[in-house]
Amino acid sequence: MADFDSATKCIRNIEKEILLLQSEVLKTREGLGLEDDNVELKKLMEENTRLKHRLEIVQSAIVQEGGSIASSDSGNQSIVGELQQVFTEAIQKAFPSVLVEAVITISSSPKFGDYQCNSAMQIAQHLKQLSVKSSPREVAQKLVAELQKPIPCVDRLEIAGAGYVNIFLSRSYGEQRIMSILRHGIVVPLIEKKRVIVDFSSPNVAKEMHVGHLRSTIIGDSICRFLEYLGHDVLRINHIGDWGTQFGMLIAHLQDRFPNFQTESPPISDLQAFYKESKVRFDSDEVFKKRAYECVVKLQSGELSYLKAWNLICDVSRKEFQTIYNRLDVKLVERGESFYQSRMEKIVEELKQDGFLEEDEGRLIMWGENRAGIPLTIVKSDGGFTYDTSDMAAIKQRLQEEKADWLIYVTDAGQATHFQTIFSCAKRAKILQESKHRVDHVGFGVVLGEDGKKFKTRSGDTVKLTELLNEGLRRAMEKLVQKERNLVLTQEELVAAQESVAYGCIKYADLSHNRNNEYVFSFDKMLEDKGNTAVYLLYAYTRIRSIARKCGGDFANDMQKVIDSTVIKLDHEKEWKLAKVLLRFTDVMLLIMKNLSLHHLCEFVYEICTAFSEFYDSCYCIEKNKQGEIITVYPSRVLLCEATSKVLEKCFDILGLKPVHKI
Ligand SMILES: NC(=[NH2+])NCCC[C@H](N)C(=O)O
User: Fold this and answer.
1) Cα–Cα separations (whole angstroms), residue 334 to 225, 263, 403, 421, 487
2) Rounded to the nearest whole angstrom, what is the distance from the C-alpha of residue 443 to the centroid of ligand 1?
3) Which residue's alpha carbon is nearest to atom 2 within ligand 1?
């Protein structure tokens, strides 16, 4: 592994060098437009030749390093990455004057191969600009001619249509890779490890934790699982709304309702009702309102009995949130808005001093770069801080104190502008540096009911999450009983299956939709056992797991022995098709790294399960006689099942699904 890491580092350095050299070559080439008698021209041309020569040396070094990685038994490299590299090199050799990186896509139909390189058209365009006439098909031919040396993962290349290069994967390469998954497990893709802070869930104290927060919880947790799997150092932050003026009225109301709250814990079970009561008083009673404001000042100045009252109120919500997190198995570190109080004071002073704040009708506002969009309100006209202030203090704390390289915020898409402005202001204030930091606002659409309207109960109230999860459990059990699973499973197994299905389907329904779109919450749909649902996948997985068990002998008891003594052959079309899907795992991971959209992983898992079911329908893994006794077991196929279950397991882990042994 150490060798592997250093080889990758080396490649990365070389790649950087190449980029630098390429840009220099470009600059030098631009010099070619100078008049003939320009003395600089000769120098530049010499420089150009020198750089080109240097580029070739670096490229051949890359090929050597790349070769050593491909031949090492890491068994889990990105196929798209490898093809991209080989094709880009071929482009550079065949068309040295063109600076185009190869684009590799997955073919839309098997007749176009497994992968495709469609760069010939782009290259032809570039050549045209350089006054070289060449059709895309000719370009493709030249490219393929350049690719005569065997590429480890490729069986053959074909030119099709207007100049597409169809790439067919090599079966023996596929067999080796599947064997490697069995021997060494799935190797984590090689990427630079980062310190990432994911801000998600983040409900508000004393207010409803609603389906929007549930979406944030599910998506955020899955993103964390994904990043943790890749080996990043992840801090999961629950940025709860636990500060602000509403605490004034809550504390004032608490003092009246439970005067001895300091010694006896007040029995507030329904904090939302308590909130509503205090709000009614706040809106109708001037004396109460005045007292509420005084309470805020006392709380913010840190007076003990006020802090105590505040904590009591937060505790009620905290407990409610925690039961939801426990049920969904989501881990979070609470660090609410209150955490930033002193930091808000500090950053306001700094922003003032640096001249970033402007007065606007008594408020202090801050514009982002180029004064685009709407400005942040940093200080309200009454001197108070806002949501914007806390996010400015938070971004600074996360980048400077926590030394994060990457910040992710998971909230509804409605907050996109807020975060873009925060990022923009943080750049202006030199807190955020684009060259050093990555920031993402991971937005998502609203949750709708089956009627296409905002998700509400029949009576029009917000749906309580505890009740929603309870309904999930009830409906999951109904489904299991319908399938007569209660007759086969023990009580314990049945409950395990119920929880796995209920929470699994709620999470999966959310994750499998493109998060940018609104999404219709429907228990009926998510509990269907056909189609891209958790139920279908959990059943498929359990079925795959049971195959080895049914084979008995070493298959059931000592899989390692089978792995050590079997050579996988993927002769049947359906075996090969399934294997090719499995081998896309790394590329799916790398895609999600870019766009943090987990529906790609759901589509991938679904594709694995459908490819598996095609394989299982056409290929015997076990043959039985009429009496139902096993007469033949096909070890290679059983191993393909084993590899499939390994890949599925990883994906389920990332999606937060918990498969059960029996279902
Ligand atoms: N750093 C942040 N602003 N995180 C998101 C907070 C979400 C906010 N509490 C809400 O309910 O909408």
Assistant:
1) 18, 26, 18, 24, 43
2) 12
3) 239
Q: What is residue 537's three-state secondary structure?
A: helix
**243, burial (CB in 10 Å: exposed 0-12, middle 13-18, buried 19+):** buried
Task: Quick: pLDDT tens for 17-30.
Answer: 655 555 554 444 44
Q: What integer is the mean pLDDT of 45-59?
A: 58
Q: What whole-number distance in Å separates Cα of residue 483 and Cα of residue 116?
A: 44
Q: Largest Cα–Cα distance of the chain, in whole Å?
A: 95
Closest CA to 74 of 192, 153, 187: 187
Using alpha carbons, list the distances in angstroms from residue 122 to 95, 115, 143: 12, 18, 13
Tokens of 595: 């766009």
The residue whose CA is least distant from atom 5 of ligand 1 is: 202
Cβ within 8 Å of residue 609, ≥6 positions away: 536, 537, 540, 541, 648
First to last CA, the chain: 38
Q: Token pair of 329, please?
A: 């198995």
DSSP letter for each residue of 227-251: HHHTT-EEEEEE--B--STHHHHHH
Residues within 6 Å of ligand 1 by CB: 199, 202-204, 239, 241, 391, 394, 409, 411
ipTM (interface predicted TM): 0.99
Question: Which tokens go with 224?
Answer: 């964390």
pLDDT digits (tens, 9 = 90+) for 196-237: 999 999 999 998 899 999 999 999 999 999 999 999 999 999
- Give the CATH fold of the 465-655 domain: Isoleucyl-tRNA Synthetase; Domain 1 (1.10.730)
- Give the pLDDT confidence of 400-446 residue by residue, as tens digits: 999 999 999 999 999 999 999 999 999 999 999 999 999 999 999 99
Task: State the closest ligand 1 atom to the C-alpha of 409, by its place in the atom list counted from 1.
Answer: 4
| Short-list 589, 590, 591, 583, CA closest to 646 | 583
Contacts of 581 (CB under 8 A, 6+ apart): 604, 607, 608, 611
Report the nearest atom of ligand 1 relative to the CA of 207: 11
**How far, in Å, CA of 435 to CA of 596, rounded?**
20
What are 496's two structure tokens? Answer: 């395990």
Average the pLDDT over 265-281 and give the result.
Answer: 89
pLDDT digit string (tens) for 583-635?
Answer: 999 999 999 999 999 999 999 999 999 999 999 999 999 999 999 999 999 99
- Rounded Cα distance between 71 and 55, Å, is 24
pTM, rounded to two decimals: 0.87
Which atom of ligand 1 is nearest the CA belonging to 387? 3
- 76-169 sits in which CATH class? alpha beta
Domain spans in the chain, listed from the N-terminal domain onward: 1-72, 76-169, 245-334, 465-655
Amino acid in position 508: Y
Report which of 68, 55, 397, 20 is spatially closest to residue 237, judged by C-alpha positions: 397
Q: What is the CA radius of gyration of the chain?
A: 30
Q: Whole-angstrom Cα distance, residue 400 to residue 124? A: 48
Provide the phi-psi class of 520: left if phi over 0, else alpha when psi is between -120 and 50, else beta: beta
